[in-house]
């Protein structure tokens, strides 16, 4: 569940704006996008140990597709290069499917809390990120996960550069590449045959 929480912090961006406009409004009106990410965190819970608090290092990388019009999310990713996952989140019925090579080597699903995308970005200044004068946007998650952080974006197209944040599990850093705005579509969220008889977990 921790990977879901971390990934929900990433839900942002849309690059259809006028040069020089604040990216906060653009991100708050996001419809759909695809982006690659690398997530790392320290002093966080171990996702494979029932979220027992421990001083740990957490790493994942993958691709995220979010459709905020139809309220769906797809992610493929790896944990520490040992375990691979594909996941589909359908917020209209609060179901979350995971196809993995970890333990079960199959497809499982669970019911999730009511998750609301981040739509409360506010301007928090500017900063140089390498040679890019980036806009800084602050945010808090509008749900029970109690997370907050800063998102650094390229002001030319509002594409994300990186994000730092703090959740109930610890601190995190996410870097982004290959941001692509998309038209909302259900085509990205078809479950594979392997999930036709997924096992419910609680």
Automatic annotation (TrEMBL):
Show which residues constitute the signal peptide: 1-20
What is one Pfam family matched by this protein? Ependymin_amoebozoa
The UniProt keywords, alphabetically, are: Signal
PANTHER family assigned:
CARBOHYDRATE BINDING DOMAIN-CONTAINING PROTEIN, TRANSMEMBRANE PROTEIN-RELATED
Q: What is this protein called?
A: Uncharacterized protein
Q: Which organism is it from?
A: Dictyostelium purpureum
């Amino acid at each position: 569940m921790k990977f879901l929480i971390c990934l929900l912090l990433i839900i942002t961006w849309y690059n259809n704006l006028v040069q020089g406009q604040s990216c906060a409004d653009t991100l708050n009106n996001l419809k759909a996008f695809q982006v690659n990410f690398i997530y790392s965190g320290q002093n966080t819970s171990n996702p494979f140990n029932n979220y027992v608090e421990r001083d740990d290092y957490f790493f994942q990388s993958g691709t995220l597709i979010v459709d905020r019009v139809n309220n769906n999310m797809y992610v493929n990713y790896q944990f520490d290069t040992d375990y691979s996952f594909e996941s589909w989140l359908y917020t209209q019925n609060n179901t979350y499917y995971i196809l993995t090579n970890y333990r079960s080597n199959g497809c499982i699903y669970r019911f999730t809390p009511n998750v609301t995308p981040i739509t409360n970005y506010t301007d928090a200044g500017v900063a140089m990120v390498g040679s890019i004068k980036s806009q800084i946007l602050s945010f808090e998650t509008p749900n029970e996960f109690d997370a907050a952080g800063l998102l650094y974006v390229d002001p030319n197209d509002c594409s994300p550069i990186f994000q730092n944040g703090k959740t109930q599990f610890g601190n995190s850093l996410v870097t982004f590449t290959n941001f692509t705005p998309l038209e909302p579509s259900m085509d990205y969220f078809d479950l594979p045959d392997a999930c036709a008889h997924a096992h419910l977990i609680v």
